[in-house]
Amino acid sequence: MEKRELIIIGAGPAGLSAAIYGKRAGLDTLVLEKGRPGGQILTTSRVENYPGILDGTGTGLADAFRAHAEFFKAEFRSASVQKLEVRDGKKIITLK
User: Fold this and answer.
1) pLDDT digits (tens, 9 = 90+) for 21-51
2) Half-sphere exposure in the Cβ direction for 16 (13 Å, CA)
3) Which of 18-23's residues contact partners 24+ apart within 8 Å by CB, and which partners?
4) Model-level pTM?
5) Torsion over CA of 86, 89, 91 and 96, rounded to 10 degrees?
């Protein structure tokens, strides 16, 4: 059984932000994502209302989010979460 200080389920913008801040805080951080990191922003063809982005694509923004998290050495793993539980005070994540 693996132990981590921070496990983030989902690599959308919120999950990738959590990975960045978790690593910056010195936490052993793992991001679990069943698909491509980026979340719903990947379905957006044009981004023009995001601070600092005058004109871009959802894919480009998602790639930038992931690159930022990777810069701080967040670990990524492709996986689907099957079950979450608390057992004897420990949080257990079961993957498919």
Assistant:
1) 999 999 999 999 999 999 999 999 999 888 8
2) 20
3) 19/69, 19/72, 19/74, 20/68, 20/69, 20/72, 20/74, 22/74, 23/69, 23/72, 23/73, 23/74
4) 0.87
5) -50
